[in-house]
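so im writing up the methods section and need the Mitochondrial carrier domain-containing protein record in one place, dumping it here so i stop losing it
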Amino acid sequence: MSPALVSNASAKGFKKESGVARLLGSGSAGIAELAVFHPVDTIAKRLMSNQGKIASVSQLNTVIFKEYAAKPFGRKFFSLFPGLGYAAGYKVSQRIYKYGGQPFMRDYLSAYHGEKFDRTFGKGSGKAILHATAGSLIGIGEIILLPLDVLKIKRQTNPDAFRGRGLFKIISDEGFGLYRGWGWTAARNAPGSFALFGGSAFAKEMLGLTDYNAATWGQNFIASIAGASSSLVVSAPLDVIKTRIQNKNFENPESGFRIISNMIKHEGPTAFFKGLTPKLLMTGPKLVFSFWLAQTLIPAFDKLM
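--- predicted struct ---
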């Protein structure tokens, strides 16, 4: 039985925004997110990559700032911007692909499979699950951007892996090795993106919205909190595994299953949720911020077109 939602909107009904509006809205969200939250992302990645227990403030300082831990505050702060070029290329591309791409997948599912979602889950619920499914399918395809993510994470957590090599030299040397961990990334993105778009859609259903594009800034903000929180919790264990696969030296790769085995053996089951609290407190707002902007700006740009 479908949950009791206020809206009774059909999954087959949808409002199609222009491609330009989707590009501008999602791209603007990615640029704004990068400018505000890149240091936060670096801290979260370094905490997730730390394999020991942090017993003191000085040890935490070393984990976060590495060799700059004893430097003045200004130098320490700017050490949180490693790989900004890779981060810009990845983050903006990722947000355009995910936030701008999900509506295209949603349009396709609505046009050709909307009635099936309505029959299976009921109106309202079917529409929300269709949005979640579109997000999940787009999330799986996100692995095409994996090399940029790998380079960004290595810059943030393991800069020695570069040893003075430039971008094109690394691509030449590593080739498809830059896609290492693609399976784990897809496994993480599928439920994470499902929860992100699904949580947001269900929140809008609970708010009584039949046209999601008609949501106010405040309604989009509430929906973004619901989607982002759901996504982070669901994807947390696989996100830790993905990060550890990607931050290894290029010449010393380690499989995801070996990483899982070592984590259980040496760190215990709670290791799979390392970094979750900082992610909810710091990365959570980053995802809420960008998702909120994208959901608000895409319809706004569509009206201006």
